Amino acid sequence: MTLSRRDFLKVGVGTSGGLMLSMNLVGCAAGVKKGYEPETGEWTPDAWLELTTDDQIFFTLARVEMGQGTYTGLTTLVAEELEVAPEAITPRFAPAAPEYRNPLYKLQLTGGSTSLATSWEPLRTAGASARTLLVQAAARVWEVDPAECTARDGVVVHPNGSDSIRYGRLVELASKEELRDDVALKPRSEWKYIGRQRGRLDARAKATGTAEYGIDVELPDMVYSVVTRSPRYGGRVASFNRSDVQAMPGVIDVIEIERGVAVVAESYWKARKAQNELTVEWDFSDAFSMSTDQVFDSYRKAADDDDGGSERSEGDFEEAADAASRMVEVEYEQPYLAHATLEPMNATAWYQGDKAEVWAPTQAPDLGQIAVARVTDLSPDDVVIHTTFLGGGFGRRLTQDFIEEAAEVSYKTGRPVKVIWSREEDTRHDLYRPAMLHRMKASISEGAVTGWHHQIVGPEILAWYVRNAAPAQFPWAPKFMYDTLGSVGVLFEGLATPKDVSAIEGAVEYPYAVDNIDIRHTLTDPGLPVTWWRSVGYSHNGFAVETFMDELAHEMGKDPYQFRRDLLADEPRHLEVLDRAAQLAGWNSPVPEGRARGIALFKSFGTYIAQVVEAGIENGAIRVYRVSAAVDCGQVVNPDIVKDQIESGVLFGLTAALYGEITLQQGEVQQSNFHDYPLMRQYERPEIQVDIVDSEENPTGVGEPGVPPVIPALGNALFALTGQRQRRLPLKADV
């Protein structure tokens, strides 16, 4: 391409803010359209970046922001290579589209602490590709070698060091360029923002109330709905007093939907008031009806009848057990847990005949499309999902039942409708972290652990999630095949769908040097809906593994820290965080009277973390004074966010350790709100120290790894204090 300076100036002067550069970014979305539309200035959002002639830069964020920091962290990756400050980029949440699917799950979901890890190279490559095209365009104008030009702070600088052209004036020209060579990413020594960027790009919007969450959405002519659901999972509506409620002021309609009875009204409070007068008779013939004790009885029976499928086998545990001088056998229980997100479930749906739009705080917008298609006459392609900020997710918003309800109500009323769950509904109709049972055995001979046996008993999550996940993989499939696709996904787990590791993760990665290892999973599902919960299987396996390690240390008369250390000679990253946490906590120094320390170590989502908890008992209650954490999460993009996430994981885990328990009576959840499902309060917050390993490894997750080790570390501290071992959660002060 030949372009004179005069022609370049005509292009620069004759264009305005609507023109943009839409690039085919190496390593990112496939099939992205090149060029821009000079007549309309509109861009089809199937690429990561949009650069306009008035120097605006938009970044399409394919992962949701639910407090974990993707809004800032992923933008920083692009900014680093694009040579602009992160604050110069405006992130926008991605629509549901195949280009934005998580490469690990082949679905457009945010979970598993994978956002940064899966975006590390693609987004840096996106920024570098844009920068390279802009530099090439400027070099062509100046008729110089692009290698002699530099980019910084949103401009390309001439080799003479004084002349420059801002990005906006290069947009049209750059859109006609092609990458000449493989894009080179900046070396670590030249990073300006990665590892140094602090603060959050969404902080101002959240502090000023301008950030839009799902519950904030308002539409013209919008109505409100609340749903009365069966108190037992699987219950069906037999009858209800529709006419009585329909006659109440402000009530628009009272309709039966798949999950219960929906009251539709002019305002939320009118809908809620009318709901109080609603009487529903339920058919419980096919409903879940077990109590908590019956759930664990069923687990024990299943464990007795079947020791489960082998998940990891090394050496010969039975032979080690036969030769052992001592055997240690224990059992651990963990209850069902709710997510208790600050923002309860909600969604706004607008069925418009030939299409539907949904505004929702969802972790999986493509599954939201399937949820809408299920309850309307539309196909997934006819559904637009507008993702908002999320007031907490923790895995709960991976399941789209709240979107399905809103879509069905809008479909049956023909109105834009917002469905809001109350806190009580959010607690009693959650999809829970599974209750689990663990049977542990260890053989000891000549002062050493010679065998390790771990039998995990409980359900897998895939069977509950695949209902919409499988159809999302095949959006072209007719709706009558949706349930079949889900069944096939479960039947051919590991082939048609990824292997479900939700029950065993963390357990099979047992890092300690023991010759004979036998890890098994006995699959049993009582029938209560379950889903992912912050740190998923790592949460319950972390408690079992690290509590049992502590028990073995005391059984053998060894210091719990040194005992672990001796078994990690071949695990340098585990060993480093263990040493750092012990040093940070002053492990060998005395503690104040009435206190004790406990230690735990666990790797989850690729991140190594060790924690020391200092705790005591005050006024008949457990008190956590201090948590010292050392974390190796690879290369750090934003140190403040890493610390924030480890701290929040610690508090989340302590809440579960101290208070978390969903109990059942004849299939009904007994908890309803924060008075009987409490969260840790501000006055209970311990001092938290976080030591981050300076690493050059690729980044790993930080949103969840803070949870698993803090629970056993607290239990181990309480044992050191009281001499009483607690093997069932939540922990108690008066065992």
TrEMBL record:
Pfam families tied to this protein: MoCoBD_1 (PF02738), MoCoBD_2 (PF20256)
Domain Aldehyde oxidase/xanthine dehydrogenase a/b hammerhead: 208-286
Name the record gives this protein: Xanthine dehydrogenase family protein molybdopterin-binding subunit
